[in-house]
Design brief:
Helix content: 55-70%
CATH architecture: Orthogonal Bundle
Number of domains: 1
Distance between the termini: 35 Å
CATH class: Mainly Alpha
Strand content: 15-25%
CATH topology: Arc Repressor Mutant, subunit A
CATH superfamily: Winged helix-like DNA-binding domain superfamily/Winged helix DNA-binding domain
Shape: globular
Radius of gyration: 16 Å
Order of helices and strands: HEHHEEH
Oligomer: single chain
Length: 114
Amino acid sequence: MNDNENLVKNKIKELKKGVLELAVLKIISDRERYGYDIIEVLKSVSLATSEGTIYPLLTRLKNEGLILYKWEESDKGPPRKYYTISAKGSELMAELLNEWKKIDTGLIKILGGR
């Protein structure tokens, strides 16, 4: 891989990382989800990430009081940790979504689109 390909790959990674927190909050806002389920949703919308990225993010969000979790037995293996959004997380998500809409509108104007 040449330097330009590495640069592009790193810039794309940075872009995705910047929206990952908002995406995770939104994913768990509709219903409780476990880590692998969150990763699968992210993959389905081309925001694929690894376990090495998502689990530290979930821990950080929990430590910030933005999400909650509970352990549940699984009939498909070991117990799973299910995540839900907290009231504080819902408030932050609403603010981030509002800001995202402004960014999206601005970028569309700059890039020429809808």
